[in-house]
């Protein structure tokens, strides 16, 4: 940071200098670059499985919005490093993101992304378009590419309510960025293969938010069933998935009591039918 | 630099007079506490150029004077808040820190530049309880005033402030607080600014996440109707002078509709 002597008269610091756009990341990059993730020297050796990894996130559109859910497990190799980690984050009033991959980097990215969206909104007096938000996240992931190559991979899933179409939209990413818009439903993380299989069979176009929440809980159950890194509902400790519903009314995270209802329905059903609901053959 | 010798006292006095004149040309802005937080009211015909703005989760900003100058302060304040909230935690961003930053900047410009800033700023923070609320008023020379419950600034600030103090009481409802603010902003016997030309926002402590909320015109109309319904059954004994009966004060009306600097949309 430049010393005060280099500044125009009356400027206490660079906070009052116009950086040319309304991006928080750009501003911090010039003002205090050490705060940003992924700008440090790359790691000498890959970290691999030694740090906690977040696992499965699922999302699906519903009537007038979108629902996202994530399990609560973080793993370091074969160790369960946390049972109640939260991987679905509110990013603004009409959007949220879920993270899979290195938990630490992912959480930091979600925090930065939230500030990024709010910063633009306050500076410009308007909200970013959904496409604008999705693109902004892609740039952040691309910035993390060097770290991703050393094992600190973060792949988010982004979901938002778009007032233009009065419905939900879902965007997927890879380590190089993106975004890839996904229609109807999408899943990321180690259990995503199994969750996606379940979603394909259980997704109903234009279903109510309540039904869609149940679909996602079922999909997470299937992921936990077959993937060791995905946590199922922890009945003894009362730890339930994090579920976020975004509609025209804004972002809402369901309370533990509400999620418990859906989990109970799912678990009760599976007592008789361990593989879950059967989709019609014809 | 000025030619010849001028005493420091003279220079400071000239700068202060210059700034005061600039600020006095604009309309007033009122900030006051109500039951659930803090209310900002500004007569402002422009819908694009705001005088009231959100800085952070619990912090709001209101300003009078030259638009480009207070806009620079507003943007700097948002950067300060976002950088600090990101570095530490969202709860570590306070109005006091922001007021100090503004005081530093305003004070330095006042002493070092030929022209001081022609602005007056309020930084307000809403707490979990009314005791946690804070309203700081900053003037062009970097002085900070820790206001209790209410603050008025801009053209005719003193008259507005007096009227506001007469009507203000602790723990008013939103409708009553809005009515109080408008009564204070209006010269006795003067005409109230139409709802479409008001910029009103609240910091509501009951909102989740971000407390700042702009109140659109339809909501304002409902609130004013509610306030009128409450005060009417009292047979006009609410201490508000009926229009036309108050003695017309000489000079410009308090709301200064001729203000040529304030809107920022002109020159």
Structural key phrases:
heterodimer; A: 282 residues; alpha+beta; Glutamine Phosphoribosylpyrophosphate, subunit 1, domain 1; eight-stranded antiparallel β-sheet; five-stranded antiparallel β-sheet; 7 helices; 13 strands; globular; B: 267 residues; disordered C terminus; threonine protease (chain A); threonine-type endopeptidase activity (chain A); zymogen (chain A); protease (chain A)
Q: Quick check: average pLDDT of chain A? A: 87
How much is the radius of gyration of chain B in Å?
Answer: 19 Å
The CATH architecture category of chain B equals 4-Layer Sandwich
Low-confidence stretches of chain B: 235-267
Helical content of chain B (DSSP H or I, runs of 4+): 25-40%
**Largest inter-chain contact set:** A-B, 23 and 25 residues
Tell me the name of the CATH homologous superfamily of chain A.
Answer: Aminohydrolase, N-terminal nucleophile (Ntn) domain
Separation of the first and last Cα atoms of chain A: 67 Å
Radius of gyration of chain A using CA atoms only: 20 Å
Large-scale geometry of chain B = globular
CATH class identity of chain A: Alpha Beta
Tell me about this structure.
The complex is a heterodimer of chains A (282) and B (267). Chain A has 282 residues and is α+β, with helices and mostly antiparallel strands. Chain A has seven helices and 13 strands. In chain A, the strands form two sheets. In chain A, strands 1, 4, 5, 6, 7, 8, 9 and 10 form an eight-stranded antiparallel beta sheet that branches. In chain A, strands 11-2-3-12-13 form a five-stranded antiparallel beta sheet, with helices on one face. Chain A starts with 23 loop residues before the first helix and ends in a 10-residue tail after the last helix. Mean pLDDT of chain A is 87; it is low at 1-5. Chain B is α+β, with helices and mostly antiparallel strands. Chain B has one domain: Aminohydrolase, N-terminal nucleophile (Ntn) domain (Glutamine Phosphoribosylpyrophosphate, subunit 1, domain 1), CATH 3.60.20. Chain B is built from six helices and ten strands; from the N terminus they run αββββααββββααββα. Chain B has helices at 8-24, 67-87, 95-112, 157-167, 174-185, 217-231; strands at 29-34, 37-43, 52-56, 59-65, 119-125, 134-138, 144-147, 150-153, 198-204, 212-214. In chain B, the strands form two sheets. Chain B has a five-stranded antiparallel beta sheet with strand order 8-1-2-9-10, with helices on one face. In chain B, strand 9 and strand 10 form a beta hairpin. In chain B, helix 5 packs across helix 6 (217-231). Chain B is globular. Mean pLDDT of chain B is 84; it is low at 235-267. At the A-B interface, helix 1 and helix 2 of A face strand 3, helix 2 and helix 3 of B. Chain A: InterPro entries: Ntn_hydrolases_N, Pept_T1A_subB, Proteasome_sua/b, Proteasome_suB-type, PSB_actinobac. Chain A: It comes from Planobispora rosea. Chain A: Residues 1-54 form a propeptide.
């Amino acid at each position: 940071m430049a010393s005060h002597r280099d500044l125009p008269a009356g400027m206490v610091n660079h906070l009052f200098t116009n950086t040319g756009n309304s991006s928080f990341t750009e501003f911090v990059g010039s003002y205090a670059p050490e705060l940003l993730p992924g700008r440090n020297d790359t790691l000498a050796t890959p970290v691999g499985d030694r740090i906690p990894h977040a696992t499965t996130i699922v999302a699906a559109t519903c009537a007038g919005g979108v629902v996202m859910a994530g399990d609560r497990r973080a793993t370091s190799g074969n160790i369960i490093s946390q049972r109640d980690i939260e991987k679905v984050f509110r990013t603004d009033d009409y959007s949220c993101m879920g993270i899979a991959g290195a938990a630490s980097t992912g959480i930091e990215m979600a925090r930065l992304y939230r500030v990024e969206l709010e910063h633009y909104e306050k500076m410009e007096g308007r909200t970013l378009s959904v496409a604008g938000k999705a693109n902004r996240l892609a740039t952040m992931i691309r910035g993390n590419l060097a770290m991703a190559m050393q094992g600190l991979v973060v792949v988010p899933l982004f979901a938002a309510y778009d007032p233009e179409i009065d419905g939900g939209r879902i965007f997927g990413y890879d380590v190089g960025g993106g975004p890839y818009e996904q229609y109807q439903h999408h899943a990321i993380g180690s259990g995503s293969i199994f969750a996606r299989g379940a979603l394909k069979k259980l997704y109903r176009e234009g279903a109510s938010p309540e039904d869609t929440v149940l679909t996602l809980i079922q999909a997470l159950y299937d992921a936990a069933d077959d993937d060791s890194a995905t946590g199922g509902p922890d009945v003894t400790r009362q730890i339930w998935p994090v579920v976020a519903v975004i509609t025209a009314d804004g972002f809402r995270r369901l309370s533990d009591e509400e999620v418990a209802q859906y989990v109970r329905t799912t678990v009760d059903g599976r007592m008789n039918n361990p593989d879950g609901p059967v989709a019609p053959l014809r | 630099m000025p030619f010849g010798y001028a005493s420091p006292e003279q220079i400071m006095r000239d700068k202060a007079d210059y700034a005061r004149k600039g600020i006095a040309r604009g309309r007033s802005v009122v900030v006051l506490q109500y039951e659930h937080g803090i209310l900002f009211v500004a007569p402002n015909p422009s819908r694009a150029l705001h005088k009231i703005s959100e800085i952070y989760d619990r912090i709001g900003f209101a300003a009078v004077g030259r638009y480009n100058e207070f806009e620079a302060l507003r943007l700097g304040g948002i950067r300060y808040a976002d950088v600090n909230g990101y570095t530490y935690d969202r709860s570590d961003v306070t109005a006091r820190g922001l007021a100090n930053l503004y005081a530093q900047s305003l004070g330095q410009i006042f002493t070092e530049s030929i022209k001081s800033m022609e602005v007056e700023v309020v930084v307000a923070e809403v707490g979990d309880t009314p005791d946690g609320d804070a309203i700081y008023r900053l003037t062009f020379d970097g002085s900070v005033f820790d206001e209790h419950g209410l603050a008025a600034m801009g053209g005719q600030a003193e008259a507005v402030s007096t009227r506001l103090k007469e009507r203000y009481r602790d723990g008013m409802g939103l409708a009553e607080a809005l009515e109080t603010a408008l009564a204070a902003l209006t010269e006795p016997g003067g005409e109230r600014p139409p709802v479409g030309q008001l910029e009103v926002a609240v910091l509501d402590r009951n909102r989740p996440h971000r407390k700042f909320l702009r109140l659109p015109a339809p909501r304002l109309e409902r609130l004013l109707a509610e306030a009128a319904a409450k005060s009417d059954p009292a047979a006009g004994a609410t201490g508000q002078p009926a229009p036309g009966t108050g003695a017309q004060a000489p000079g410009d009306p308090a709301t200064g509709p001729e203000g040529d600097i304030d809107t920022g949309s002109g020159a």
